[in-house]
Structure formats: C-alpha cells, structure tokens
Input
Amino acid sequence: MIVYPAIDLKDGRCVRLRQGREDDVTVFSEDPEAMAHHWADLGARWLHVVDLDGAFSGIPKNAPLIGRICSQLDIPVQLGGGIRDQSVAEAYLDAGVTRILIGTMALTDPQGFGEIARALPGRVGVSLDAADGRLKIRGWVDDAGMTVEDVLPRLEDQGVSFLVYTDISRDGMQTGVNIPAMERLLSLTKLPVIAAGGVATLDDVKALAPLAEKGLDGVVSGRAIYTGTLDFKAAVAFVASL
Output
C-alpha cells in the first residue's frame, strides 16, 4: 500500500480545490518543484500530479513544469489532467512521467482510449471520478451519463493497468473516505485501485489498510498533508509497517 502525495497544478502553482470546483481554490505553494522535493524527502514512493488547467481546458498547460519535476526526482510520477490524445500521452512519458491517468477520454472516446492503452501497455490508468455514483468528466464539470459498473468491463478488456477512484463529494473536504464505495469497486475488479478524496487523518489511512488484501494499491492525499491533519511521514511509516 502506497501513500501518494498530490501536487495539483493550476497557473503554475500548487493548489487544492474543494469538490473539484475551479472557483474554490487554496494555494499551498508558489513553487511546485520545491514541494515535490519536500514529499520525496519525507519518504514518498510515488508522486501524484494533476494538471488542473489541462483537466478543465483539455489542453496540457503545465507540461514544462511537469517535465522539470520528473527530471529532478528519483521517484516515479503518475500524471493526470488534460491527456486526451495519444501524442500528448507519449510526450509526457518521453518527458519522464512513469504512468499516465486518463479520465474524460476514457469515457467519451472509447475507441481512441483503447488505442492509447494498447500502444502504452502497463502505463495507462483511468481516473474514475464519481458523485452520488455518477461518473463525471471534463474536470468534474459534466455528467458522463454512466456509472462505474457500466465502464469497468470495457476498461479491463482494453488493458488498463490501474484505477484511481475519487469520491468527488469528499474531495478536499477532509471528511473521510467512502469505505463502502471502495469495497464495492474492489469487489467488481481485479485491477489495482487507488483511493482519493477525503483522506484526512491517519485513522482514515488505517481504515483503508485492510482493503489492501482486496486490491487497494494505495491512497492519494492532498489538502490533509498540506494543512497537517494527516502527518505524511507518519502515514508512510504506518503503511511500511503493514
């Protein structure tokens, strides 16, 4: 089980949104590169980076910054946000990203997404972002018109390597993870799953730990590790002890 520190990029800064709302932004650092080093120095095994500008616009906005982060770290980076064609995906991998996360395209362009997944085996994951059981796209703005259950069989057939599941209603709210939703998802797939949204304290990490035996790969935490309600170093030590 891995604790993934999140670096969400907007206008070149490290920020967090509440429930994915573009107009509800908290800036945590003007220097995302320094923040990436900070989490690596505290024992991060992976870094979870999101190009929020890309997610909302559909066009990569922070590619040079992301490339610099990758070049400076000795730990792998997974990246999501605005990856909606194969050329963008390959450019990020060439720039040092270890694996990519695709959300919108995986749901709106199944054929195109399948081509990317097949062309980049082992390096493509899908971001499943849900509110009240309904999947959202385009930076969580639009309803995809489907549920997790609707898309899982296809994604598995297309060779997806892993999933990141976010309960949008809890993202940035520090209200705890939706354990029943995670258990449900893990019962439906053999793919590794990363939980995001609501990881607020070490108790939340501990509550998720038993799910590692069912396929939970790890947790993403953002606001909590920046505000200090979750001690990142303590969380890393806890999962290392499992």
Observations:
- The chain has one domain: 2-240.
- Residues 32-41 form the longest helix (10 residues).
